[in-house]
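Write out this protein's structure.
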Amino acid sequence: MQGQSQQQAYDRGITIFSPDGRLYQVEYAREAVKRGSASIGVRTADGVVLVVDKRSRSPLMEASSVEKLHKADDHAGIASAGHVADARQLIDFARRQAQVNRLRYGEPVGVEALTKEITDHIQQYTQVGGARPFGVALIVAGIEDGEPRLFETDPSGTPYEWQALAVGADRGEIDDYLEANYDPEATLNEGVELALSALASVNDGELDPEGVGVATVDVETESYTGLSDEEIAGHLAEHDILADDEE
């Protein structure tokens, strides 16, 4: 009982390390990410793919109001998992940084530099008393110097670069699928197929186009493009993972 009360004392202060070197509030923020629906990023030879599970809690909810995919700049997109309100704050911050870079230097911000700006901002909230960490993880994808780049931000403020990854619910199972099927020389369409198939693998092998969001950033045009429900349905039907109630 005494040990439990001591742990609760460390829970109350974000700036206080536990005796074993842990920041409990940061760990709890990671748990909040796990409660969010899955988001997937795949880097291919032709660009990067973002796929998100945006199933609504009720059939009465407008699907367009579920925001998990965001355009950060012409050449960069962001997917989120975790607290939506926290994600919106970080997306707005990322967009401001991208615009500041264009105004100051006359060129698009680097994807790695943008990710580190975001994670530096996140990290400040692990050191300041009276504030809590952001309960969200982001996947930052884009083109930098003609090369596709794919990054993850962690609630601790640490950036990681990936070839393919998932954040949010069922991360372990989706990562296992990606590891088994990832091909670094895949085309952009094959990357979309892989990400959708990975998401379907934890959703009874099928997906509803209205419950999925897909966006790409291709190397040739260096532009962020969101796919329509009809285009997503075409991909799902082509790979036999379209929900049975869809025709």
